[in-house]
Amino acid sequence: MKQIYLRYLVLAEALRQSNIDFSGIDEVGKKLLETIAIKSAQGHPMVVTETMELSDIASPATIHRRIEILKKAGLIQVFQTEQNQKIKYLVPTQTSIDYFEKLGKLMASAMRR
Questions:
Q1: CA–CA separation, 10 vs 2, rounded Å?
Q2: Regions of the chain with pLDDT less than 70
Q3: Which domain, by its residues, includes 43?
């Protein structure tokens, strides 16, 4: 079991270095991206104010900075509904979705070996 997970980590790190520019995105940013992607996949995109309350990840100021970094990197986007322009939702971009899809394939590949 340990070998499967280690093999996955090696493959995932190779993917990170080859595909998406994660420079400037630290572990807090990665965790925030994963949280945003999970909520979006569950059909409940995160609202910016809800995201700022993720005290288990970081302080509100740190989260705000990471949101800006993720937006500039093209990994998340902000959208508003026509019904309420004040509420801003955070969702992963297609780039992020593709990245998570590749990670899933790597995990399956690591388990087959």
A1: 12
A2: 1, 18-23, 113
A3: 2-112
